[in-house]
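User: Hello, can you help with two protein structures?

Assistant: Certainly.
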Amino acid sequence: MGTTQLESVPEPKYWHLRTVLSEALDSEFTVGEILPNERDLAARFGVARATLRQALEQLELEGRLQRRRGVGTTVAPPRVGVAVGTEQHVWPGAAGDTWHAADCAVSAPPASVASILETADGEAVHTVRRSLVTHGQPVAAELLYIPESSVPDLSAIDAPSGAARARAVLRELQRLDLEGQDRAVELGSARADDAKELDRLPGAPVLVVTTRFFSEGRTVAVSVATYRADTCRLTFGDSGGVEIHHDPERRAS
Protein backbone atom coordinates (compact mmCIF):
# COMPACT_ATOMS: atom_id res chain seq x y z
CA MET A 1 0.00 0.00 0.00
CA GLY A 2 1.16 3.47 -0.82
CA THR A 3 0.77 6.45 1.50
CA THR A 4 -2.08 8.86 0.79
CA GLN A 5 -2.06 12.27 2.47
CA LEU A 6 -5.35 14.13 2.74
CA GLU A 7 -5.37 17.63 1.31
CA SER A 8 -7.02 20.55 3.04
CA VAL A 9 -10.74 20.38 2.25
CA PRO A 10 -13.74 22.50 3.31
CA GLU A 11 -15.72 19.50 4.61
CA PRO A 12 -14.90 17.82 7.93
CA LYS A 13 -11.72 15.81 7.65
CA TYR A 14 -13.34 12.62 8.90
CA TRP A 15 -16.03 12.88 6.21
CA HIS A 16 -13.46 13.34 3.45
CA LEU A 17 -11.56 10.38 4.90
CA ARG A 18 -14.78 8.38 4.84
CA THR A 19 -15.04 9.04 1.08
CA VAL A 20 -11.43 8.04 0.48
CA LEU A 21 -11.83 4.89 2.58
CA SER A 22 -15.03 3.98 0.74
CA GLU A 23 -13.19 4.17 -2.58
CA ALA A 24 -10.39 2.02 -1.16
CA LEU A 25 -12.92 -0.59 -0.02
CA ASP A 26 -14.25 -0.81 -3.58
CA SER A 27 -10.85 -1.08 -5.26
CA GLU A 28 -8.54 -2.82 -2.80
CA PHE A 29 -10.59 -5.06 -0.54
CA THR A 30 -13.02 -7.95 -0.87
CA VAL A 31 -16.07 -8.88 1.19
CA GLY A 32 -15.05 -10.32 4.55
CA GLU A 33 -11.46 -9.08 4.35
CA ILE A 34 -10.01 -7.69 7.58
CA LEU A 35 -8.80 -4.10 7.47
CA PRO A 36 -5.34 -3.12 8.73
CA ASN A 37 -5.22 -1.91 12.33
CA GLU A 38 -6.04 1.69 13.23
CA ARG A 39 -2.42 2.70 13.68
CA ASP A 40 -1.47 1.57 10.16
CA LEU A 41 -4.54 3.15 8.58
CA ALA A 42 -3.99 6.45 10.39
CA ALA A 43 -0.38 6.51 9.20
CA ARG A 44 -1.37 5.71 5.62
CA PHE A 45 -3.83 8.58 5.40
CA GLY A 46 -1.91 11.01 7.59
CA VAL A 47 -4.69 11.59 10.12
CA ALA A 48 -5.14 11.31 13.84
CA ARG A 49 -6.61 8.05 15.12
CA ALA A 50 -9.61 9.97 16.48
CA THR A 51 -10.38 11.19 12.94
CA LEU A 52 -9.94 7.68 11.59
CA ARG A 53 -12.34 6.25 14.19
CA GLN A 54 -15.00 8.79 13.19
CA ALA A 55 -14.68 7.75 9.55
CA LEU A 56 -14.80 4.05 10.40
CA GLU A 57 -17.85 4.56 12.60
CA GLN A 58 -19.60 6.37 9.74
CA LEU A 59 -18.84 3.55 7.30
CA GLU A 60 -20.10 1.04 9.86
CA LEU A 61 -23.36 2.99 10.15
CA GLU A 62 -23.69 2.91 6.36
CA GLY A 63 -23.19 -0.84 6.29
CA ARG A 64 -19.84 -0.78 4.49
CA LEU A 65 -17.90 -2.15 7.45
CA GLN A 66 -18.58 -4.57 10.30
CA ARG A 67 -16.82 -4.81 13.62
CA ARG A 68 -16.80 -8.46 14.62
CA ARG A 69 -15.91 -9.64 18.09
CA GLY A 70 -12.60 -11.45 18.16
CA VAL A 71 -11.98 -10.72 14.47
CA GLY A 72 -11.65 -6.99 13.88
CA THR A 73 -13.09 -4.62 11.29
CA THR A 74 -14.12 -6.38 8.08
CA VAL A 75 -15.60 -5.36 4.74
CA ALA A 76 -19.36 -5.95 4.85
CA PRO A 77 -21.26 -7.73 2.07
CA PRO A 78 -23.84 -5.79 0.02
CA ARG A 79 -27.01 -5.11 1.95
CA VAL A 80 -29.93 -7.49 1.58
CA GLY A 81 -33.06 -5.97 0.09
CA VAL A 82 -36.17 -6.25 2.26
CA ALA A 83 -39.13 -5.80 -0.10
CA VAL A 84 -41.93 -4.16 1.88
CA GLY A 85 -43.93 -2.75 -1.03
CA THR A 86 -43.98 -5.70 -3.38
CA GLU A 87 -47.20 -6.76 -5.05
CA GLN A 88 -45.91 -10.32 -5.51
CA HIS A 89 -47.53 -12.53 -2.89
CA VAL A 90 -45.91 -15.91 -2.18
CA TRP A 91 -46.03 -18.40 0.67
CA PRO A 92 -42.97 -18.88 2.89
CA GLY A 93 -40.99 -21.86 1.63
CA ALA A 94 -42.22 -21.51 -1.95
CA ALA A 95 -39.85 -21.99 -4.90
CA GLY A 96 -37.06 -19.42 -4.83
CA ASP A 97 -37.35 -18.77 -1.09
CA THR A 98 -33.81 -18.48 0.32
CA TRP A 99 -34.72 -18.76 3.99
CA HIS A 100 -33.42 -21.81 5.88
CA ALA A 101 -35.94 -23.69 8.02
CA ALA A 102 -34.25 -24.63 11.29
CA ASP A 103 -36.90 -25.87 13.70
CA CYS A 104 -40.60 -26.06 14.55
CA ALA A 105 -42.31 -26.13 17.93
CA VAL A 106 -45.90 -26.04 19.13
CA SER A 107 -46.37 -23.25 21.66
CA ALA A 108 -48.51 -20.25 22.52
CA PRO A 109 -47.52 -17.16 20.50
CA PRO A 110 -46.97 -13.68 21.98
CA ALA A 111 -50.18 -11.84 22.82
CA SER A 112 -49.64 -9.40 19.92
CA VAL A 113 -49.44 -12.29 17.43
CA ALA A 114 -52.38 -14.13 18.98
CA SER A 115 -54.44 -10.96 18.52
CA ILE A 116 -53.58 -10.83 14.81
CA LEU A 117 -54.35 -14.54 14.36
CA GLU A 118 -57.48 -14.22 16.49
CA THR A 119 -56.57 -17.32 18.46
CA ALA A 120 -57.70 -17.93 22.02
CA ASP A 121 -55.45 -16.92 24.92
CA GLY A 122 -52.85 -19.61 25.46
CA GLU A 123 -53.83 -21.53 22.31
CA ALA A 124 -50.77 -23.25 20.86
CA VAL A 125 -49.70 -22.73 17.24
CA HIS A 126 -46.93 -24.09 15.04
CA THR A 127 -43.90 -21.82 15.44
CA VAL A 128 -41.42 -22.25 12.60
CA ARG A 129 -37.97 -20.78 13.14
CA ARG A 130 -36.02 -19.80 10.03
CA SER A 131 -32.83 -17.89 9.23
CA LEU A 132 -31.48 -15.95 6.27
CA VAL A 133 -27.75 -16.13 5.52
CA THR A 134 -25.75 -14.25 2.91
CA HIS A 135 -22.01 -14.38 2.24
CA GLY A 136 -21.75 -16.85 5.10
CA GLN A 137 -23.19 -14.57 7.76
CA PRO A 138 -26.67 -14.46 9.33
CA VAL A 139 -28.63 -11.35 8.38
CA ALA A 140 -32.14 -12.16 9.59
CA ALA A 141 -34.06 -14.46 11.92
CA GLU A 142 -37.75 -15.26 11.57
CA LEU A 143 -40.50 -16.75 13.67
CA LEU A 144 -43.47 -17.87 11.58
CA TYR A 145 -46.67 -18.52 13.53
CA ILE A 146 -49.21 -20.89 11.93
CA PRO A 147 -52.39 -22.05 13.72
CA GLU A 148 -53.23 -25.73 13.55
CA SER A 149 -56.45 -24.79 11.73
CA SER A 150 -54.32 -23.54 8.81
CA VAL A 151 -52.61 -26.94 8.37
CA PRO A 152 -55.26 -29.46 9.51
CA ASP A 153 -53.83 -32.36 7.48
CA LEU A 154 -50.31 -32.16 8.90
CA SER A 155 -49.01 -35.59 9.88
CA ALA A 156 -46.80 -35.86 12.95
CA ILE A 157 -45.62 -39.27 11.78
CA ASP A 158 -44.05 -38.00 8.54
CA ALA A 159 -42.14 -35.15 10.18
CA PRO A 160 -41.96 -35.46 13.98
CA SER A 161 -39.58 -32.59 14.80
CA GLY A 162 -36.81 -30.21 13.79
CA ALA A 163 -36.20 -28.82 10.31
CA ALA A 164 -38.17 -31.63 8.68
CA ARG A 165 -41.20 -30.71 10.76
CA ALA A 166 -40.76 -27.03 9.78
CA ARG A 167 -40.65 -27.89 6.08
CA ALA A 168 -43.73 -30.11 6.43
CA VAL A 169 -45.70 -27.28 8.04
CA LEU A 170 -44.71 -24.91 5.23
CA ARG A 171 -45.70 -27.47 2.58
CA GLU A 172 -49.13 -27.85 4.15
CA LEU A 173 -49.55 -24.08 4.35
CA GLN A 174 -48.91 -23.81 0.61
CA ARG A 175 -51.99 -25.94 -0.05
CA LEU A 176 -54.12 -22.91 0.78
CA ASP A 177 -54.94 -20.26 -1.82
CA LEU A 178 -52.95 -17.15 -0.90
CA GLU A 179 -55.31 -14.21 -1.22
CA GLY A 180 -52.87 -11.52 -0.13
CA GLN A 181 -50.39 -10.34 2.44
CA ASP A 182 -49.36 -7.10 4.10
CA ARG A 183 -46.25 -5.96 5.93
CA ALA A 184 -45.39 -3.53 8.68
CA VAL A 185 -41.83 -2.38 9.41
CA GLU A 186 -40.45 -0.83 12.57
CA LEU A 187 -37.05 -0.11 14.05
CA GLY A 188 -36.15 -2.05 17.15
CA SER A 189 -33.35 -3.36 19.34
CA ALA A 190 -32.12 -6.93 19.22
CA ARG A 191 -33.30 -9.10 22.08
CA ALA A 192 -30.83 -11.52 23.63
CA ASP A 193 -31.99 -14.54 21.60
CA ASP A 194 -32.08 -12.60 18.30
CA ALA A 195 -28.70 -11.02 19.01
CA LYS A 196 -27.10 -14.43 19.55
CA GLU A 197 -28.54 -15.80 16.32
CA LEU A 198 -27.55 -12.70 14.33
CA ASP A 199 -24.05 -12.46 15.82
CA ARG A 200 -24.76 -9.02 17.30
CA LEU A 201 -24.73 -7.56 20.78
CA PRO A 202 -28.06 -7.31 22.61
CA GLY A 203 -29.60 -3.92 21.92
CA ALA A 204 -28.09 -3.63 18.42
CA PRO A 205 -30.41 -1.87 15.94
CA VAL A 206 -32.66 -4.16 13.91
CA LEU A 207 -35.55 -3.92 11.47
CA VAL A 208 -38.60 -5.90 12.54
CA VAL A 209 -40.87 -6.85 9.63
CA THR A 210 -44.28 -8.31 10.51
CA THR A 211 -46.12 -10.00 7.64
CA ARG A 212 -49.70 -11.27 7.66
CA PHE A 213 -50.79 -13.92 5.16
CA PHE A 214 -54.46 -14.09 4.17
CA SER A 215 -56.51 -17.00 2.86
CA GLU A 216 -60.20 -17.88 3.02
CA GLY A 217 -60.94 -14.39 4.27
CA ARG A 218 -58.77 -14.62 7.39
CA THR A 219 -55.20 -14.37 8.63
CA VAL A 220 -53.72 -17.86 8.38
CA ALA A 221 -50.09 -17.12 9.29
CA VAL A 222 -47.96 -14.35 10.76
CA SER A 223 -44.24 -13.86 10.20
CA VAL A 224 -42.08 -11.77 12.53
CA ALA A 225 -38.67 -11.36 10.89
CA THR A 226 -35.79 -9.54 12.57
CA TYR A 227 -33.17 -8.12 10.19
CA ARG A 228 -29.77 -6.71 11.08
CA ALA A 229 -30.08 -2.99 10.40
CA ASP A 230 -26.43 -2.81 9.30
CA THR A 231 -26.86 -5.40 6.54
CA CYS A 232 -30.30 -4.62 5.10
CA ARG A 233 -32.12 -1.96 3.12
CA LEU A 234 -35.81 -1.43 2.48
CA THR A 235 -37.17 -1.60 -1.07
CA PHE A 236 -40.53 -0.35 -2.31
CA GLY A 237 -40.12 -1.22 -5.97
CA ASP A 238 -43.73 -2.12 -6.80
CA SER A 239 -45.29 0.79 -4.98
CA GLY A 240 -43.40 3.74 -6.35
CA GLY A 241 -39.88 2.71 -7.33
CA VAL A 242 -38.24 3.83 -4.09
CA GLU A 243 -35.16 2.17 -2.66
CA ILE A 244 -33.32 3.11 0.53
CA HIS A 245 -29.63 2.36 0.00
CA HIS A 246 -26.75 2.18 2.44
CA ASP A 247 -24.93 5.06 0.71
CA PRO A 248 -26.31 8.42 1.95
CA GLU A 249 -24.95 10.19 -1.13
CA ARG A 250 -27.36 8.22 -3.34
CA ARG A 251 -30.87 9.58 -3.51
CA ALA A 252 -34.08 7.57 -3.46
CA SER A 253 -35.53 7.36 -6.94
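That covers the first. Now for the second protein you mentioned:
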Amino acid sequence: MSRKPRLNRMFSEQGKCFDVAIDHGFFNEASFLSGIENMKQAISTIVEAGPNCIQLSVGQAAHLPSIPGSQKIGLVLRTDVANIYGHTLPSYLFSELIDKAIEQAVRLDAVSVCVNLLLLPNQPELHYQCVKNVAKLKTECEKYGMPLMVEPLVMLANETKGGYMVDGDIQKIMPLVRQAVELGADVIKADPCDDVQQYHRVIEIASGVPVLVRGGGRASDEEIVSRTIELMKQGASGIVYGRNVIQHENPSGMTKALMSIVHEGATKEQALAYLAAPSGIFK
Protein backbone atom coordinates (compact mmCIF):
# COMPACT_ATOMS: atom_id res chain seq x y z
CA MET A 1 0.00 0.00 0.00
CA SER A 2 1.12 3.55 -0.70
CA ARG A 3 2.31 5.64 2.24
CA LYS A 4 1.68 8.86 0.32
CA PRO A 5 -1.89 9.54 1.57
CA ARG A 6 -0.79 9.47 5.20
CA LEU A 7 2.32 11.52 4.50
CA ASN A 8 0.09 14.12 2.80
CA ARG A 9 -1.93 14.36 6.01
CA MET A 10 1.26 14.78 8.00
CA PHE A 11 3.04 17.44 5.90
CA SER A 12 1.85 20.70 4.38
CA GLU A 13 1.87 21.30 0.63
CA GLN A 14 5.31 22.83 1.13
CA GLY A 15 6.52 19.67 2.87
CA LYS A 16 6.62 21.11 6.42
CA CYS A 17 5.41 19.60 9.70
CA PHE A 18 5.19 20.47 13.39
CA ASP A 19 4.55 17.42 15.57
CA VAL A 20 3.90 18.09 19.27
CA ALA A 21 5.15 15.15 21.35
CA ILE A 22 2.89 14.32 24.32
CA ASP A 23 3.96 10.69 24.75
CA HIS A 24 6.25 11.26 27.74
CA GLY A 25 4.08 9.38 30.22
CA PHE A 26 5.01 6.17 28.41
CA PHE A 27 8.45 6.02 30.02
CA ASN A 28 7.84 5.69 33.78
CA GLU A 29 9.64 8.93 34.71
CA ALA A 30 7.98 11.31 37.17
CA SER A 31 9.70 14.40 35.75
CA PHE A 32 8.18 13.69 32.32
CA LEU A 33 4.66 14.18 33.69
CA SER A 34 5.04 17.89 34.37
CA GLY A 35 2.46 19.78 32.31
CA ILE A 36 0.55 16.69 31.20
CA GLU A 37 -1.02 15.46 34.43
CA ASN A 38 -4.43 15.99 32.80
CA MET A 39 -3.93 14.47 29.35
CA LYS A 40 -7.42 15.19 28.05
CA GLN A 41 -7.02 18.89 28.73
CA ALA A 42 -3.42 18.91 27.49
CA ILE A 43 -4.41 17.38 24.17
CA SER A 44 -7.40 19.71 23.79
CA THR A 45 -5.18 22.75 24.36
CA ILE A 46 -2.69 21.67 21.72
CA VAL A 47 -5.41 20.72 19.22
CA GLU A 48 -6.92 24.19 19.58
CA ALA A 49 -3.54 25.69 18.66
CA GLY A 50 -3.51 23.66 15.44
CA PRO A 51 -0.21 21.81 14.89
CA ASN A 52 0.09 19.29 12.07
CA CYS A 53 0.45 16.27 14.35
CA ILE A 54 0.38 15.13 17.95
CA GLN A 55 2.58 12.25 19.09
CA LEU A 56 0.82 9.97 21.58
CA SER A 57 1.04 6.51 23.10
CA VAL A 58 -1.48 3.77 22.41
CA GLY A 59 -3.12 4.26 25.79
CA GLN A 60 -3.80 7.99 25.27
CA ALA A 61 -4.43 8.16 21.52
CA ALA A 62 -8.22 7.80 21.85
CA HIS A 63 -8.40 11.31 23.34
CA LEU A 64 -7.55 12.83 19.96
CA PRO A 65 -10.54 11.67 17.84
CA SER A 66 -12.89 12.29 20.77
CA ILE A 67 -12.42 16.06 20.39
CA PRO A 68 -15.38 17.48 18.39
CA GLY A 69 -14.92 19.52 15.25
CA SER A 70 -13.81 19.02 11.68
CA GLN A 71 -10.20 20.07 12.20
CA LYS A 72 -8.05 16.97 11.78
CA ILE A 73 -4.74 16.75 13.62
CA GLY A 74 -2.60 13.80 12.56
CA LEU A 75 -1.75 11.12 15.13
CA VAL A 76 1.86 9.94 15.33
CA LEU A 77 1.77 6.76 17.38
CA ARG A 78 4.70 5.96 19.67
CA THR A 79 5.39 2.24 19.24
CA ASP A 80 8.20 1.50 21.71
CA VAL A 81 8.73 1.93 25.43
CA ALA A 82 12.23 2.21 26.91
CA ASN A 83 13.80 2.53 30.35
CA ILE A 84 16.83 4.67 29.52
CA TYR A 85 15.66 8.11 30.68
CA GLY A 86 16.43 8.18 34.40
CA HIS A 87 19.39 9.73 36.18
CA THR A 88 20.66 6.24 37.00
CA LEU A 89 20.50 3.56 34.34
CA PRO A 90 19.05 0.22 35.45
CA SER A 91 21.13 -2.93 35.19
CA TYR A 92 19.00 -4.16 32.29
CA LEU A 93 18.11 -1.78 29.45
CA PHE A 94 15.29 -2.33 26.99
CA SER A 95 13.36 -0.72 24.15
CA GLU A 96 10.27 -2.85 23.65
CA LEU A 97 7.68 -2.63 20.86
CA ILE A 98 4.00 -2.64 21.69
CA ASP A 99 2.09 -5.68 20.40
CA LYS A 100 0.96 -5.52 16.75
CA ALA A 101 2.05 -1.91 16.58
CA ILE A 102 1.09 -1.20 12.97
CA GLU A 103 -2.32 -2.83 13.24
CA GLN A 104 -2.98 -0.65 16.27
CA ALA A 105 -1.80 2.42 14.35
CA VAL A 106 -4.20 1.64 11.50
CA ARG A 107 -7.06 1.12 13.96
CA LEU A 108 -6.30 4.50 15.55
CA ASP A 109 -6.09 6.24 12.13
CA ALA A 110 -2.47 7.29 12.66
CA VAL A 111 -0.56 9.18 9.98
CA SER A 112 2.76 7.67 11.11
CA VAL A 113 4.43 5.55 13.76
CA CYS A 114 7.54 6.53 15.68
CA VAL A 115 10.30 4.24 16.96
CA ASN A 116 13.67 4.85 18.63
CA LEU A 117 17.10 4.03 17.25
CA LEU A 118 19.12 4.49 20.44
CA LEU A 119 22.89 4.82 20.68
CA LEU A 120 24.14 4.95 24.27
CA PRO A 121 27.83 4.65 25.21
CA ASN A 122 28.88 1.03 25.77
CA GLN A 123 25.35 -0.34 25.26
CA PRO A 124 25.56 -2.30 21.96
CA GLU A 125 22.82 -4.74 23.01
CA LEU A 126 20.31 -1.90 23.29
CA HIS A 127 21.28 -0.56 19.87
CA TYR A 128 20.91 -4.05 18.42
CA GLN A 129 17.43 -4.34 19.90
CA CYS A 130 16.45 -1.01 18.34
CA VAL A 131 17.76 -2.08 14.92
CA LYS A 132 15.59 -5.19 15.15
CA ASN A 133 12.59 -3.07 16.15
CA VAL A 134 13.01 -0.77 13.16
CA ALA A 135 13.45 -3.69 10.75
CA LYS A 136 10.35 -5.43 12.10
CA LEU A 137 8.20 -2.31 11.87
CA LYS A 138 9.41 -1.55 8.34
CA THR A 139 7.99 -4.81 7.03
CA GLU A 140 4.61 -4.17 8.64
CA CYS A 141 4.58 -0.51 7.57
CA GLU A 142 5.01 -1.55 3.93
CA LYS A 143 2.09 -3.96 4.26
CA TYR A 144 -0.32 -1.34 5.61
CA GLY A 145 0.94 1.83 3.93
CA MET A 146 2.04 3.34 7.25
CA PRO A 147 4.90 5.89 7.23
CA LEU A 148 7.77 4.99 9.54
CA MET A 149 9.34 7.76 11.61
CA VAL A 150 12.67 6.66 13.09
CA GLU A 151 14.17 8.60 16.00
CA PRO A 152 17.97 8.24 16.03
CA LEU A 153 19.12 9.33 19.49
CA VAL A 154 22.79 9.73 20.37
CA MET A 155 23.00 10.08 24.14
CA LEU A 156 25.76 11.04 26.55
CA ALA A 157 26.89 8.65 29.23
CA ASN A 158 24.82 9.10 32.40
CA GLU A 159 27.92 9.71 34.48
CA THR A 160 28.75 12.70 32.24
CA LYS A 161 25.65 14.77 33.01
CA GLY A 162 23.10 12.37 34.41
CA GLY A 163 19.68 11.54 33.04
CA TYR A 164 18.36 11.87 29.52
CA MET A 165 21.08 14.01 27.89
CA VAL A 166 21.68 14.35 24.18
CA ASP A 167 25.14 14.19 22.65
CA GLY A 168 25.19 17.01 20.10
CA ASP A 169 28.31 15.76 18.29
CA ILE A 170 27.43 15.98 14.60
CA GLN A 171 29.99 13.26 13.81
CA LYS A 172 27.89 10.84 15.89
CA ILE A 173 24.50 12.15 14.78
CA MET A 174 25.15 11.84 11.04
CA PRO A 175 26.01 8.11 10.93
CA LEU A 176 23.00 7.21 13.08
CA VAL A 177 20.68 9.31 10.91
CA ARG A 178 22.08 7.60 7.85
CA GLN A 179 21.56 4.17 9.45
CA ALA A 180 17.92 5.09 10.06
CA VAL A 181 17.56 6.03 6.39
CA GLU A 182 19.24 2.82 5.28
CA LEU A 183 16.84 0.80 7.47
CA GLY A 184 13.91 2.34 5.61
CA ALA A 185 12.77 5.42 7.52
CA ASP A 186 10.18 7.56 5.73
CA VAL A 187 10.72 10.39 8.22
CA ILE A 188 13.67 11.13 10.51
CA LYS A 189 13.20 12.67 13.98
CA ALA A 190 16.72 13.73 14.92
CA ASP A 191 18.56 15.76 17.52
CA PRO A 192 19.99 19.20 16.81
CA CYS A 193 23.78 19.37 16.78
CA ASP A 194 25.87 21.64 18.99
CA ASP A 195 26.42 24.11 16.13
CA VAL A 196 23.02 24.42 14.43
CA GLN A 197 24.60 26.25 11.50
CA GLN A 198 26.12 22.88 10.54
CA TYR A 199 22.76 21.12 10.46
CA HIS A 200 22.62 21.17 6.65
CA ARG A 201 25.10 18.29 6.84
CA VAL A 202 22.52 16.17 8.69
CA ILE A 203 19.91 17.11 6.08
CA GLU A 204 22.29 16.04 3.31
CA ILE A 205 23.17 12.72 4.95
CA ALA A 206 19.43 11.92 5.20
CA SER A 207 19.44 11.64 1.41
CA GLY A 208 16.07 13.25 0.73
CA VAL A 209 14.19 11.74 3.68
CA PRO A 210 12.49 14.62 5.54
CA VAL A 211 14.14 15.51 8.85
CA LEU A 212 12.10 16.77 11.79
CA VAL A 213 14.30 18.12 14.57
CA ARG A 214 13.74 17.25 18.23
CA GLY A 215 13.41 20.00 20.82
CA GLY A 216 15.17 18.28 23.71
CA GLY A 217 15.06 19.67 27.23
CA ARG A 218 13.46 22.95 28.30
CA ALA A 219 15.04 26.12 26.98
CA SER A 220 14.19 29.82 27.13
CA ASP A 221 11.65 31.22 24.67
CA GLU A 222 14.33 33.21 22.88
CA GLU A 223 16.63 30.21 22.58
CA ILE A 224 14.02 27.77 21.29
CA VAL A 225 12.63 30.31 18.79
CA SER A 226 16.06 31.35 17.50
CA ARG A 227 17.20 27.72 17.22
CA THR A 228 14.07 26.74 15.31
CA ILE A 229 14.47 29.59 12.85
CA GLU A 230 18.06 28.56 12.14
CA LEU A 231 17.17 24.86 11.79
CA MET A 232 14.50 25.68 9.23
CA LYS A 233 17.03 27.82 7.33
CA GLN A 234 19.39 24.83 7.37
CA GLY A 235 16.82 22.72 5.50
CA ALA A 236 14.83 20.91 8.19
CA SER A 237 11.35 19.83 7.15
CA GLY A 238 9.97 20.71 10.56
CA ILE A 239 10.19 19.98 14.27
CA VAL A 240 9.02 17.56 16.96
CA TYR A 241 8.91 19.44 20.26
CA GLY A 242 7.45 18.20 23.50
CA ARG A 243 8.64 19.67 26.80
CA ASN A 244 9.26 23.12 25.30
CA VAL A 245 5.53 23.19 24.51
CA ILE A 246 3.75 21.14 27.16
CA GLN A 247 5.81 22.51 30.08
CA HIS A 248 5.51 26.10 28.87
CA GLU A 249 3.23 28.45 30.81
CA ASN A 250 1.48 29.22 27.51
CA PRO A 251 1.51 25.98 25.48
CA SER A 252 -1.06 27.24 22.99
CA GLY A 253 0.93 30.39 22.31
CA MET A 254 4.17 28.45 21.95
CA THR A 255 2.52 26.06 19.50
CA LYS A 256 1.30 28.97 17.38
CA ALA A 257 4.70 30.66 17.57
CA LEU A 258 6.49 27.57 16.34
CA MET A 259 3.88 26.92 13.64
CA SER A 260 4.49 30.44 12.34
CA ILE A 261 8.20 29.68 12.01
CA VAL A 262 7.77 26.27 10.40
CA HIS A 263 5.07 27.24 7.91
CA GLU A 264 5.38 30.99 7.43
CA GLY A 265 9.06 31.70 7.99
CA ALA A 266 8.27 34.07 10.85
CA THR A 267 10.99 36.20 12.37
CA LYS A 268 11.98 35.95 16.02
CA GLU A 269 9.93 39.03 16.88
CA GLN A 270 6.86 37.79 15.01
CA ALA A 271 7.02 34.37 16.68
CA LEU A 272 7.55 35.72 20.18
CA ALA A 273 4.50 37.96 19.78
CA TYR A 274 2.28 34.87 20.05
CA LEU A 275 3.56 34.33 23.58
CA ALA A 276 2.04 37.63 24.70
CA ALA A 277 -1.42 36.05 24.32
CA PRO A 278 -3.29 34.70 27.37
CA SER A 279 -1.76 31.45 28.64
CA GLY A 280 -3.38 28.05 28.45
CA ILE A 281 -1.69 26.30 31.39
CA PHE A 282 -2.51 22.61 31.70
CA LYS A 283 -4.28 21.83 34.95
